[in-house]
Every structure is written in structure tokens, then in C-alpha cells.
Amino acid sequence: MRVNDRASGTNSRGEPVDIDRQAANAARVYDYLLGGTANFEVDRAAGEQSGAAFPGGIDGARASVRSNRDFLARAVRYLAGEVGIRQFLDLGTGIPNEDNVHHLAQQVAPDARVVGVDYDPVVLAHAHELLRSTPEGAVAFIDGDFREPEAVLEQAADTLDFSRPVAVMLVAILHLIDDDNDPYGLVGRLMDAVPSGSYLAMTHLTNDLLDMAETARILTEAMREPMVLRTRAEFARFFDGLELVEPGVVPVDEWRPDTPPTGTFIAHYAAVARKP
Q1: Residues 50-62: pLDDT tens digits?
Q2: C-alpha R_g of the chain
Q3: Which fold has domain 3-274?
């Protein structure tokens, strides 16, 4: 691998972070489609190529990821505001921006405690931005992998009290986990660790709403992570044993929208559910 295929940064502890620029990365492609700048040429190329195959082209792809991000804001406001959740475990935090979970939660509830989890080196290099908290609340960041939930939960317990309700946020992450890694079991292990009154908020790419097969193929070839499309029934399985919040499992723009949903370029299902 050529030297200029890699870049370096430091994490929140000042330790060096080695960034692979040879393969695209889901967090960085997502950042590019949202208009961010924490991405490399390989990520922009993957975004453009997969966007060209997306119904509606690159503009449709950008609208799709924005609709997913807008759901995140609505879900956090609902959980922190209407429900009164004060603890959030955000897996797959992504590149820091103005609408990360900790920003949104502490805008509603300054005493909210939030733990972000990610393993992408670019996210780690920006981790200092993920650690900004209100004086009343707390924010922590874990260099961790969703596929190792017990290790994540052990570290998160330094900030979160798992005897009190926690909102587990899995927004646009499960479609990066193939069946060989037992995604249903991973979600189940997380929800087993939180008490009654906790919540699960999720979105997931699907082929039900738009023809996403070619877009998924291009991204799978470009990235280290696979892009797995699941049906509505397969997505709903993640909520087995939980109480779905109205309106249940719906296209992402139909979950408690602030404005009438357009139904245009929607490629994700979304749902929020309570652990009884």
C-alpha cells in the first residue's frame, strides 16, 4: 500500500490514528452525501458512483440520507422530550456534526448522559468534538465495535447507569452487519442489558421502497463493510418482544414527521420501540 493511501490523526487521548484511504468507509460516504468535508476521494467516488445508480441519481441519494438524519433528530427529541429518557447509547455515531445524538439530546434535556460508539478512524480523529457536554450532563466516546456488545456495555457503564432506562440508538448501522454476524442476536444482547422502560430506535436500508440493488452492490464492492438490504418483515424482527411506538414500522419520513412526508427517494424503514 502506498504511503499516500493512508493518513494519520489523533484520537481524544492524543494517540495516533491510522486512516486507511484505499477503501471507502460507510461513515465517510454518509458524511459526503450529507455535504460534510470529513471524507476522502475514495469516499466521494463511492458516493458518486452509488448515487448514480440510486433512483433519482445523486440528488436522490442525498435526499435519502438527509431523511434518515432528520428521523434521528425527531427520535431523539421524542425520547428526551415526550418520554423523558436521560441516557442514550449511540452505536455508529459517525462523523461529528451539529445534529449528533448528544447535541440533540442535551438541547432538550441538558442533564442527558450520552455515550457514542464507533470504530472508524476518522470518527476517532474527531472524537474531541464528540466529548463536548453541558455542565449538567455527560458525554463519553468509546472506540468500540457494535459486534462486541459486552465490551461496549462494560465501557459505557462508566457513564450510563444501566439500572435506569437507556435509549439504544442504531440508526443506519444494521445494514452494515451481515447475517454471519448474527445481527438479531447482537440487538438482543444490547436490549437484554437495559432495564424495562428503555427504548430501541433504528433505521435500515431496504429494497422494498426503491430499487436499491445496484446501489448496494456498488457500495459493498467499494467499502470494507457489506451493504445488506432487508425487507420490512426482516426489519420488524429486530423489535420482537418490544412495544412499538406509533406509527410502528414505517418509511423513515413517515415516523412522526414535522412536515407532511413526501415519499420521494425514501430508502429506509424506521421504528422506535419500548422495552416492557
Answers
A1: 999 999 999 999 9
A2: 18
A3: Rossmann fold (3.40.50)
